[in-house]
Amino acid sequence: xxxxxxxxxxxxxxxxxxxxxxxxxxxxxxxxxxxxxxxxxxxxxxxxxxxxxxxxxxxxxxxxxxxxxxxxxxxxxxxxxxxxxxxxxxxxxxxxxxxxxxxxxxxxxxxxxxxxxxxxxxxxxxxxxxxxxxxxxxxxxxxxxxxxxxxxxxxxxxxxxxxxxxxxxxxxxxxxxxxxxxxxxxxxxxxxxxxxxxxxxxxxxxxxxxxxxxxxxxxxxxxxxxxxxxxxxxxxxxxxxxxxxxxxxxxxxxxxxxxxxxxxxxxxxxxxxxxxxxxxxxxxxxxxxxxxxxxxxxxxxxxxxxxxxxxxxxxxxxxxxxxxxxxxxxxxxxxxxxxxxxxxxxxxxxxxxxxxxxxxxxxxxxxxxxx
Length: 371
What we know:
The protein has 371 residues and is an alpha+beta fold. Helices cover 26% and strands 34% of the residues.
């Protein structure tokens, strides 16, 4: 008996709870056409896979399903459908060409050329493995310390956090929760890849670290009470503008609590002006909504954010925020009064940027543009 597919599980669970598609749409703020698309597995209706995964996660959470299992099941189904044998992919083409051949035998040379080129391209696609692809084909395998991986797990959700100079901030890393923070105008991401057992049966956390816009991830291992230094002196982290200390305070079977501290600044790194106040915005998602953030010209996060989540954003010079439903989000900007970001159901954009103060040329003020 074959296992149930994503769409079938969603539909049957909804029906077991006596919920209509309209009920789900109202509670999750997901359009009915997208709910039906998920249940029928018609993913072509979504503008990008980011939307598919975001809506699937929201719908699974709403139905109280095992969201991680549903996402893994979806990815497995997509992989199976994309790995058709080469002969299956070429059957329709061969059939059509055979019909044309009967109609006009003068096409024979063209057909031969097409078949040869198709075979070469197919062979290259199936067998031409790029460096590192085979090595990282299993996303659940733990990597050796100091190894540069080629992926950020797509099921990890990154929450924005602020690490101020002169302070240490604790992060609790779990398989589905990582953190992103700004260091000298650079967006950094940190997450846990897994936990290994050491020689004396102690837990060892395998932690991933990424500096935007680098695509790859630097992995390192850490024990309880062990401090790791992420330094620009390391050739694989040479883009860092200052060193970062990571002290591992506790490790469980699948999580780790780490303390992040900013350390020595690299010579020539952009300096923060004396008395300059960063742009700080806190967003409260009352309902689920699409959102994207651009922090000092770098994309911080983009995708569907669930109801109940809070995002803390900080930028040095410029912060751009866009949400799909302005009425679904409350905001606080630099300690001001909490307000609605925009009108209900309307796309809302906010841009905050630094400008010289008209009263004191040595100071800056934060100005706002928006819909």
